[in-house]
Amino acid sequence: MSKRKIYSCLSIAAIAFATIIMTATESHSISFFDKLLSKENETSEVKKQNVKEEMTKYDNWNLSCLKSVKTGQKQCRIFQQVTSGKNKNTVLGVSFIAARGKTVSAMRVIAPLGVNLISRLGMNIDNSKAVKIPFQLCRPVGCIVLVNIQDVFIKKLKSGNIMHITYQGMGAKNVQKIDVPLKGFSKALEALEKEHGIKNPS
Which domain holds residue 169? Predict the structure, then answer.
């Protein structure tokens, strides 16, 4: 069997395994808010839940809040979608979420379908050492990495210029390197914390 076929078989097996494992725990890892904002069901779910989306742009970052028409309560996130080419195809999505009254505690990265799950996703800020993070599961919207983050990482994001993301497609030489500009991140984070009533902002 050729190396290409071996990689293909392993990737398919990894996707199946990740889907089985994460389906049982997905509700604890991915917020309902993030599900609402997935491209695959954004419009229908927002209408179904009777909520209104409010969007504010901070340079490269966006603050998106879903506001309940009935209660007025908001659930917010900050995110950036990186596009490429003349058609502006989305090649990466990055979002940060926080529970009400608490600091930002989770980052979600969505890479396109077809990534090599075994190679994992690489991440570093500016010239810092890159770390490898496993993919948790794949959905029609893409393959997802969920990361619990600490204050030290938030500080690096606020003081940094570029977050570098790498992932491998099918084939050893098919490595994608995506730059995520951090301009506007601090202001977007401050706005998110204000919306969520965070008493001790990062």
Answer: 3-195
Question: What whole-number distance in Å separates Cα of residue 170 and Cα of residue 111?
Answer: 13
> Using one digit for the tens of pLDDT, what is the confidence trace for 25-39?
333 334 433 443 444
Contact 170, 116 (CB under 8 A): yes
Tens of pLDDT, residues 42-74: 444 455 568 888 899 999 999 998 888 888 778
Instruction: Flag whether 141 is in a domain.
Output: yes
Contact 107, 88 (CB under 8 A): no
Q: Which residue shows structure tokens 């969520």? A: 196
Query: First-to-last CA distance in the chain?
Result: 52
Residue with tokens 């195809």: 89
Task: Give 32's DSSP letter.
Answer: H
Q: HSE of 194 in the Cβ direction (CA atoms, 13 Å)?
A: 8
Q: Answer whether residue 202 is part of any domain.
A: no
Evaluate if residue 199 carries a pLDDT over 70: no
Q: At 16, give phi and psi (nearest 5°).
A: -60, -45
What tokens were used for 95? Answer: 């979002």
Count of domains forming the chain: 1
Q: How far is CA 191 from the centre of its chain?
A: 18
